Amino acid sequence: MKGKKIDLGSSACAIARSLSVVGDWWSLLLVRDALGGARRFGEFESRLGLAKNILAVRLRKLIEEGIFERVPSSDGGARDEYQLTKKGEELYVVLVGLWQWGEKNTASPKDRRLIMVDRQTQQKIARLEVRAKDGRRVGPRDYTSREIGAGS
Description:
Elements: H1 14-22, H2 25-35, H3 41-48, H4 52-64, E1 68-71, E2 81-84, H5 86-89, H6 92-105
Antiparallel strand pairs: 1-2
């Protein structure tokens, strides 16, 4: 039995709140394609193979959440374009992390057809690392969460 979707937008957990904004796969794929240069509705539609009605709903939600904004066409045409806001561009770190996790955990080396490279040097992007303020590497068992103000 399917239950009612829970609203995570007011959760104390930042991960839950983030998923309420970009937790469906289409949202992150739209951000990925925008970072890759897509700007028009038709570009997103053809790159993703997404039905127009679903694409329109996703873009509208991402605009409401401040991830995308509609702007006049760069070529002066009648149709608006979609561009990432600063908030939307900051999702690149999430996408790099997902890419790197996926390279390691979802496909064999023979299935990999793309690598993520630095535009300037064309060198492969280094693996992301989480670091403490003092520079130490923080691993998956080296962190916890606490209430703001507790122990400060």
